[in-house]
Structures are given as structure tokens and as C-alpha cells.
Amino acid sequence: MPTVHCSNRDCQAPNDLGDRRCKTCQTPLLKRYLWSVGEWIKAYQPGEILLDRYLLVRPHVLLDTTPALGVEGPEEIPDYILPYQKLLPFRLNVPEVYDYFPSWDEEKDLSVWLLDYGPVPLNDGGEPVYERLLPSLGEMWHHASPLQQLTWLWQIVRLWQPLQRQGVVSSLLEFDWLRVQGPQVFLQELKLDDHQFYETKYLAGVWQPLLTDAHPAIADFCQTLWQKLKQGKIPHADHLLRVLDTGIQSLAEQYDFSYTVFALTDAGPSRDHNEDACFPVSEIPIEGQQLANTMTLICDGVGGQEGGEIASQWVIEHLPIRVISKIQKQMNDPEQIRSFIQHLKEDIEEVNEQLNRRNDREERIERERMGTTLVMALADFQQFFLANVGDSRCYWLTEESCKQVTVDDDVASREVRLGLMLYHHAVELPRSGALTQAVGLGPSSQLHPIVQRLIVPTNCLFLLCSDGLCDNSRVEQYWQDDFLPVLQGDRPLAEAVPRLIELANQVNGHDNVSVALIHCQIAPSVPTPTQAEKAAAQATEDSAEELSLEDDFTGDTELGLKAIAYPDFSKKAVAKPKEIELEQEHSVPEQDPRESLTSPSFGPKSPLPAEEIPLNPPLEPSPQLATMGKYQNTSPPPGGLAAKFQSLSKTSQLLIAGGVLVAIAAATVAILNLSQGNNGQNQPSSSLMNSSVGHG
Description:
Blueprint: E1 3-5, E2 14-16, E3 32-37, E4 49-50, E5 54-58, E6 61-64, H1 82-86, E7 96-101, E8 112-116, H2 137-141, H3 146-165, E9 178-181, E10 184-187, H4 203-211, H5 219-230, H6 237-252, E11 255-266, E12 276-279, E13 286-288, E14 296-302, H7 307-326, H8 334-361, E15 371-372, E16 374-380, E17 383-389, E18 393-397, E19 402-404, H9 411-417, H10 423-426, E20 450-455, E21 460-465, H11 467-470, H12 474-482, H13 484-487, H14 493-507, E22 513-524, H15 529-543, H16 593-597, H17 623-626, H18 641-646, H19 650-677, H20 683-695
Antiparallel strand pairs: 1-2, 3-6, 3-8, 4-5, 5-6, 7-8, 9-10, 11-13, 11-22, 12-14, 14-15, 14-16, 16-17, 17-20, 18-19, 18-21, 21-22
Helix pairs in contact: 3-6, 4-5, 7-8, 19-20
């Protein structure tokens, strides 16, 4: 049986592949499976050990049997590998180069490069579940919620311009290379473009199996989006991104978003004071769903004497106040989002400038200057904003994946982004962890905070931490043991964060440690009848307007977003409540929201042939949505007035009928008398009245 060595550098004992923990030190085993790029890998057979380290498990898939060891990178990185290095900031969606096999032929490039996807799904025997390490987007499409489906498309479009700048945008047009890792789309590998004229309309062909078979809640939107892409009416990636943003925003109104935040900091066992700081400072977790009450910060101070402690506390005391004062009530419009991101950068730069001036006043030089790292997160319903400076990190964790989101501002990451070294080679160099920037160390003109905006489509955890926890790959080692229980509801946040502090002190213990967890929980919500009526009515009005995507840049009306703003309750018959005596005309049947918004197990259906797809899909809501809550037959609803009348005795029915006839006769006589009294004085009115009576 294959063996894998412990990733704990102080242990590195061999273990069976099926073991979950090291038999010697009890550290969770890190099983790092890698995808190989290069034709020469086909010369080897499964079961062979390459470079005395890598076990070839199956074609193109290798296991690093000694993950605690560093790697020796090449003297020069070839052009077709450089895009991986340059795209390090997009590590959520693009693999990192882990190691390589040098070419044995000096005249031909026969080298093999190993790509790291991070943790991949494994079976009980410790082997990959999927043949190519991750499931394909097409395979997972039918199991996803409508919000997840639109988010995957949004992620692909967000990659368009960065990949285009690196000359590898055609990688997004390889449908089989689009894989899924939890809530993220992940590229199997990258390839150099054949030319420079790739357009977003090419996505129509790649996305056809997805857009023509989308979740029913977004089917009309996706069908129309596909048509517009084919016709070239969405010419730019920015335009397409805004269209998808509008669709996501409309769809997100069907969900309830809840964020729970808890943060703690500790000096650790080897330090006599704490230069870390965190926000919010609270003894219990804080719940919310918008920016002001979801803000979370971790700072790790640097500097001589007590400078680091002063700097981290300064940022914690001043930055949240500045950010909260700029928060707007609505954060849906693209201009509002851009403005908020710009304000975040400016606020960080202003706090940096204040610290920098204090350093100058106190004549602090070089390593005496005080500064701090920063990682900050804020959530606004489905939007998640993240800013970082330095090497404090953010991780995105789901039940299927553990991904580092941020890139450290240190020497090792700088060497990677410059295309000079592989990361696992760079971290072995002296001073590889030295910071390249931190808040307060220099003027704001030299500070470049990174601000990201993510879409959260499913339940997840965001971990913000200082290097007291994440050093030595501790998050990757322990994420299944210490984070999955929170996601599965078995461990409350108030218990999970102190356990992580304790874990960091036990397995690292060399530094201060700060930990913040942000638990995002998403549940479908059912609209009220009034909301549903307004949505259907608005969709009908919008469909009559002749707008094009060029005129309506957000694509709201043109793509029928109003029509899919609420779930179609007519998909399933619903039993009527027994206690209601009189049905209202526009009432909405009650339905379990999970049946309308989560992913039903509907099977794949073949796309319509091109000739059967209308060129202009109707923008009106479906007949079921337009009439939802109304009775479709002419018979009175059960429990109505007719049913009550029939339940009376014969005598009561005769008395009621007689009274009605007497009332009708009296009204008729009164009308005739009035008509005769007005004869000759108001002939048009008399004629109209007589005509009305005659029709009656």
C-alpha cells in the first residue's frame, strides 16, 4: 500500500494512505494530489515513484508522498508557465505551480509541471473521488441552486480580462477544463492563446449546455442571455459582468442572508505581550447581514519595542469608524459598489498616513518604525468585501473545500508574481517571509491595499487570522477537524474560535495569534402575496417596453429579470389551509421555500435545436407566474359563499331567495320611475339608463 509522510516537519513519519492522522504525532495527514502538465508524463506508468517523491496514481495525477519537504525550482520559468505565476491573485480559480520534472533532452522541452488545486475530494481510502481531481462544471450544474449557477458564470466572466492580459483567455473556452471546487469555478489548466481576437460572444457556444438547461427559477433569464451572447449584443466582459450582477442581485432577494461574527486574540505561550488586535471586541458572537454589523478586522503589529502593539490598536480604533461613516444603505448599483471599494482603499491609506506621520515625528527609522498587517472583511447580503495588507490571511471554507483567498505581501509571493520562482521554492529562501508592505511603514503613495469583492452563493465560513495560526500549513491540515463541525451545526462559533486559539498555541506557539470566524448562512425566503403580485405586474409592463441591451446597460428589463424575481409557485399543487373561510382572489399558495429555490434533482435535458429556439424569447412571466394564486376554473372555491348557501336548510334557502327577488323588483321600479320623471329633460341619460336596464 502507498505511504504518505506526515506534513509536520518535526515528525515526517510514514503512514498508510488510508490513515487520517499521523500514527506518531496525531497531526492530520495532508494528502496533496497534483495535476501534471506536459506530454512526457505519459511515458510513466501508474504506481511509479518519480523524483523519489511523487507517486503516479493515475494518468496525469500524482501524490506528493513527502509534503513537508521543499522543492527545487527551475533556473528560468518558460513562457507558457508564466501566466500561472502572474495570476496568483486569482488563486480561487486558477491553479498554482507546485513543482516540475526537468527535461532530460537539452534540445527539446520535455519538462513536466505539477499543478496544485489545494484539497480535493477523497474517498475513505484517501484516494481522489474524481478522475481529474475535481468534478466538471457540467457535472455539478444540475445539483446547484440558481444562485450558485449564476455565481459560477459571474466568476468565469470576472476572469476574462485578467486572463486576456496574460494571453490565456482561450482557457475559458475549453468547456472540459471548467471544474468546480465548492462554490468556485476552477480551471483545470491554462493554455496560450492562438490569437488576440477572442470576444465574449464566443462564450455562447461554451455556455450553451448550461444556459439552455438552467434551474427553472432562472431559465428565462439564461435563455435570453444565451441569445444575446450569440447575437453579439453583449460585446464586452464588463457589460456581461454587469448583466450577471443584476441577475444575481434580483435572485438574491429571494434569500435570507445571515452572518455571525466572532473574533479573539491571544499573546500565545512564547510572548510576554500581544501585538495582535482584532475587531469586533465582544464576549459573544455578533449577528447581522449588512456591512456595519459584519465588519471584521485582524491586525498583526510589527516594529521595535511596543510599536507593533500601538500600530495594531490604532488601526482597530480608527479604521472601522471611518469605514462605517461611508457605508450607504443600498449597495446594488455598480457605481455605488465602485465608490465603496474606492472609499475602503482611501480609508486604509488615510490610517496609514496618520501612522506614518507619527513614525516621522518620533524619528523612528528602519526596523524601529511601527506598522501592522491588516485583513478586513465586510458582508452585504450576497456580497463579500475583503481588504488586506501584509501577511494576515483570509480563507474561504465550505464542506467541500478550503481555499486561501488573499495573497501575502511578502518576499516569497513577490518572487512568484514577478515570474522568478515557484512558491514552494521561494518559501525556502532566507527572509522569504519578510513583508513587502504594511500599514504605517511608509507614505500612502507606496501602499497598495488589495480589495476584493466576492459573491457568496452557499453556506460557508470565512477565516481571518494572523500567522500565529496559519504558519506551517495548519489551516490546510486541520480544516476538516475544526471547521467542518461549525458548518455542519455541531459546534457553535463561541466554542470554535477559542478552540482555534488553543490549537494555534499547541501546534505553533511561536507568535501571538488572532482568529476571526464569519459564518454565512443562506436560506430561501418566500415572498409575500403583495410582492409576488407586484413582480408579475411589473414584468408584464416591462415586457411592453422596447429596450435593447445597448440602451439598458444593466440588462434588467431586456433579460426578463423582473419575471424571475420570485419563485414560480405554480410548479406544484399545494393543499389549501383548512381554517380559511373565504379565499382571497390573489392569495399565494403556501409552499416549502426549499422546493422552489434549492436544487431539485431534475435530470439533464437536451438543449433545443437552434431552429426551435425563438430569436426573441418572451420577456413576460410564464402564465403560471402571471396568474399564481388565482383559481383557473370558474367553479367557486371550496369553503366560499356558494358552499355556505348550499349547507343551509331548504326553508332558509327559500327565504333568502325570496328576499333577493323582492329587492331586485323594488330596485327595478325605482329606476323606471326615475326614468319617466326625467323624460324630455335629459334624453341621452334616459336612453343610456334604459339601455343599461335592458342589458340587465
